[in-house]
Specification:
38% helix; two-stranded antiparallel sheet
Length: 207
């Protein structure tokens, strides 16, 4: 199993999203883009221009989501990536995305988050006591939900890797990819254990 989930929506940041999308493929992983519906989404480009005090936004590339949140089975994926941009502001209340997020945190799969992506993990109740990097304007979202804000380009807290913005892409994606490689090797070494874990999760979901 080489699939890794990438969570997006309209107004996901282009560089936040496309860098991991292609970086995963370089190491033999299959990025699967998930969104509220399986359709094409409009990404954006964000930058604080000289003389501006807020972020300016332009249209970026479009990206096809091949699966909706409601159809995602987290057991089919090695890890998950929460992209930034404005999308997390409205994605975070999706009950299926909350379910997915909580599952990845509960079973300690490799998780990466950049910029506003923290809003999803925070809304899902998964950041309490966790050290994370995020864009400064989302510091409140993290801390009000019990997380610990760290102003660094790469923060690794167990299975959770985070960066502040796309400017940190070259620094935090590598450690996350390393965790994914370790998870892939572990799954290949222990197929029986993997099947047992799936059985336990399936049984617990029935209850």
């Amino acid at each position: 199993m080489n699939q890794v989930l990438i969570v997006i929506g309209d107004a996901s940041e282009t560089l936040d999203t496309l860098y991991p999308y292609y970086r995963l493929q370089e190491d033999g992983f299959i990025p699967v883009v998930a969104a509220p519906e399986a359709q094409r989404y409009q990404m954006v480009m964000h930058e604080v221009r000289p003389g501006w005090t807020i972020t300016k936004e332009w249209e970026g590339y479009q990206l096809e989501a091949t699966i909706s949140f409601r159809d995602v089975d987290p057991d089919d994926y090695l890890g998950v990536f929460f992209s930034g941009g404005r999308a997390p502001e409205y994605l975070r209340d999706d009950p299926d995305l909350i379910r997915i997020t909580q599952n990845f945190f509960r079973v300690n799969k490799p998780i990466a988050s950049v910029c506003h992506g923290v809003e999803i993990a925070a809304r899902a109740g998964c950041v309490s006591g966790r050290r994370m990097a995020t864009v400064a304007k989302c510091r409140f979202d993290l801390e009000v939900c019990g997380g610990i804000y760290v102003n660094e380009p790469c923060v690794v807290d167990g299975n959770l890797v985070s960066g502040r913005t796309y400017h940190d892409n070259g620094l935090y994606l590598g450690p996350w990819i390393k965790l994914l490689k370790e998870a892939r090797q572990q799954r290949h070494r222990s197929p029986a254990a993997s099947l047992d874990r799936h059985a336990v999760l399936a049984d617990s979901s029935v209850r």
